Automatic annotation (TrEMBL):
Residues 67-78 have a biased composition (Polar residues). Residues 68-131 form the P-type ATPase N-terminal domain. It comes from the Eukaryota. ATP binds at residues 420-422, 523, 565, 589, 618, 699-701, 781, 787, 813-814. GO terms for biological process: endocytosis; phospholipid translocation; retrograde vesicle-mediated transport, Golgi to endoplasmic reticulum. Its EC number is 7.6.2.1. Coiled coil: none annotated. One of its GO terms (molecular function) is ATP hydrolysis activity. It comes from Basidiobolus meristosporus CBS 931.73. It is an enzyme of class 7 (translocase). It catalyses: a 1,2-diacyl-sn-glycero-3-phosphoethanolamine(out) + ATP + H2O = a 1,2-diacyl-sn-glycero-3-phosphoethanolamine(in) + ADP + phosphate + H(+); ATP + H2O + phospholipidSide 1 = ADP + phosphate + phospholipidSide 2. This is Phospholipid-transporting ATPase. The keyword Protein biosynthesis does not apply. Mg(2+) binds at residues 420, 422, 810, 814.
Amino acid sequence: MSEHSQPLLSYPGSSKVRRPWVYSSRSDYNQSGDDFDLGGKGLRPYTSTTIPSLHEPGKYQRPTSERYLNSQQCSSGNKYPPNVIRNQKYNVATFLPLVLYEQFKFFFNLYFLLVALSQFIPALKIGYIVTYVGPLCFVLIVTISKEAYDDWKRHKRDQEANSQQYEILTQDGYQFIPSAKIKVGDMVVLKKDQRIPADLILLRTSESNGACFIRTDQLDGETDWKLRLAVPTCQKLPNDNNLQQIEASVYADAPHKDIHNFLGTFTRYFPNNMPPQVEALSVENTLWTNTVLASGTAVGLVVYTGKETRAVMNTSHPETKVGLLDMEMNRMSKILCAVTFVLSLVMIALNQFRGAWYIYLFRFLILFSSIIPISLRVNLDMGKTFYSYQITKDKQIPDTIVRTSTIPEELGRIEYLLSDKTGTLTQNEMELKKLHMGTMSYGDDSMDEVLRHLSTYYERQQSTAENSVNRTKRTPSFSNTKARRDIATRIQDIVQALALCHNVTPVDSDDGSITYQASSPDEVAIVRWTEKVQMPLVFRDLNSMHIRTPGGSTLEFEILQVFPFTSESKRMGIIVRNKSTNEINFYMKGADVVMAKIVQYNDWLDEECGNMAREGLRTLVIGRKRLTEETYRMFERKYHEAKVSIHDRNTAVQSVISSILEHDLELLGLTGVEDKLQNGVKNTLELLRNAGLKIWMLTGDKIETAKCISVSSKLVHRNQNIHIISKLKHPSAVPDELDILRVQSESCLIIDGESLQVCLDFWKTEFIELAVRLPVVVCCRCSPTQKERLADITRLIREYTKKRVCSIGDGGNDVSMIQAADVGVGIVGKEGKQASLAADFSITQFSHITRLLLWHGRNSYKRSAKLSQFVIHRGLIISIMQAAFSAIFYFAPIALYQGILLVGYTTCYTMWPVFSLVLDKDVSEDIALLYPELYKDLTKGRSLSYKTFFTWLLISVYQGGAIMMLAIWLFDAEFIHIVSISFTALIFNELLMVAFEINTWHPFMIYSELASILIYITSMMFLKTDFDLDFILTWGFVWKVSLITAVSSLPLYAFKLFSRWYAPPSYSKLT
């Protein structure tokens, strides 16, 4: 319905949508359900105390108790949310309050706000107000401007999306309305490459078969096109306008987040109390918001809008990740706050609390406020931005994206790595390597035999058709011919099954070649293999499939039913009819664990599956069941009844399939598909193990396959013991396994999903306690549900060990694990970009993780630790000088430096040399990557610890005291000389200390040092109230400043050299 429609009470031709609101707690929703007119000018809901039966002829009656509402009444009822996109965080009224709250909830900013406000109180005023207000205002202006710009961009994007014009079909013809005005019940006409504006039911397409493709990469991150099907009843109509002439209703289930499931029915009504025609609706009949129509044109019926669409309901806002270094700095800032208070208290205590001591206490707190440097947050954020820039510009890890620029230093603290296997460690490019049929087996080097047998089969078929008279002629070599014919027939059976049992669609590319569209690389690999043995798939639509034989003829099949693969069922099936023979066959392929129960008894399947798994191959079992026409008709009737049910539909459908189809299948054979490791994976895993990382690998493979991959990928080193826990069904068996692990702390643990579930349900603490000590843990046979639970395991590891955890994956099922980790890394792979978009760092292949951690992680952490401590030192030293000055001059709370000197000290005089520490390198790139053992030191957190913090505190006390005492001792009669000598010595001391801390000089470091000296000397000529030019141009000033600087800095440098000689760092012997 749309507000541009004219109100109408009712009309003969209408289409309705039925949506249950039983789940809602809102009182304005009709608890028994509403049927809404979707196809015309009015809205016509009806209510009924019972849902009429739609399947029993003669019992259906049209509802007699109806209510008629027009569009204005519908809008006032607020039954459905508006179709408005809003990603803005603020509006005009809330912007400043919310932004200021976000800033002042941090201790640093709140502290300096109180200090700045105190300067408006005359009794607490010290020096110029701008000295305290200026830096805070600068930080706030930068932050507010950034937030305003970001929100303005969000507003523009929202405005552009909401104003996008869409064509809708009404009783008055076609009309264009903006996306924001689309309502439930509108029929939207979509063109190729157009974004879907709301959740729709696909009614019609421009293709005669009712099919269309959509791109879902903006919804689920998957790059493969998805096939969608129109409602058959609507597709058969002569044209789109006829949609306004039929009377029908759509049942849609309540809005939910699952983009892979939808339950609904389409019911068409006929006159004269004829029973209605009911068709089941599933996710294949839907077009979700933010997907894009990739082919043709389509007409869709709006069923969900706004916040009820799948896209909005799946829009999550993961918690903001805070780095360990930030938390350590927050704790140290509280210590600095305590130091400030204690120092202020000591000053008034030494003055014996004379006079208005409480006023003096506040004045001292303001004087010593530089102990907590407001520039610390700015410097760290600038540093993190620079590290992120370096990562994205690193040519050796191209196309790397930093999506969370606040935690690059976390890359240097990782101790646990959780990795998916398929697509992360492997290429996710499948290739069929082995075919086994019980008594016959064909490997990669003998596939030519398969082609020869196929050619023989079809040559004999052709010969039999041409010369039926000679079919019974006997020859001396009959027995061999019969044997060959038997082998050829069996090979033809399984190759034909592989060529038919899939959801692959051939698509003609612009260059004339044929590409295959499918949701799974396994299916594409099998279809490519059938093409290799000259039985290619040449055509497919909704109802038919064509296969070319080695002889050049074409086999045509009618597609009767398709049962898509799901991660829960682990199997896929199809029913086809051979158009030339009218034979009906049900083909099914799937994982051995489920297919073993479906196929007929055999004595080789389990053994051969194990053999292939030990070779690192993924296995698929293929089965077939021949159906009579009567059997299929019975199945079709029961299957349709189950599909149109609205209660427990999935259970009903599966019950029908299981009872009629999924039993006693003829076992045709077994395939082994290889997924090759990515380039560099072996070397990467070996380096990461040597760097001290504990690695958890997650896979859906069999235990034998997981073990093979673990060894071949060097996840497990050559002589390492492997302990396997499998098939644990009872909690009582867990303690024995855990006891074994206690004495094998260096073993690799391989555990299947079933056993993992038991351990986590009943022995969670004990299991995690032991598992986190192991160097390698491989979780195999992980179901999608268990993969989701691995996010909980990630959190358990974090909580139990208090160590940094990194998760890496490439698929949508890895997103929860990636978001739960301290650092999430996503790989852009065959499964799309969903993991990449959800991650903190996006890379293109697994081997890039080595450089990301060992090099960029090292630099980011070491530099941030040094930078933060130096910024703290810069504030501490000037506060110690202030304390010494006040102590000498009768504990008076008078500022030593005022105005521009205080502002310049942390900005133009020292800012760039101190910030240039972000370019420092303690080891070269080659050494960091060649000796991964160096990474172990980073995880111990020694670069920033309470030990280093108090070391810098003592350095500040020594240097501040030395500079102040020597300046007072050397000054000549006038107070201004104390300021000029001590401040100049302070500046040169800071520049020298930066130079002493640098391990590897960069040109920018030299330029920043020289530029800072030049700026300071130049400013001395203009700050005549602070500097006496006649005095500073004398040799007396020069030697006094030189002496003070030497006494304050050189002893510390000498001590540093001695410490390096006595206890050299781990990397010193390698440089």
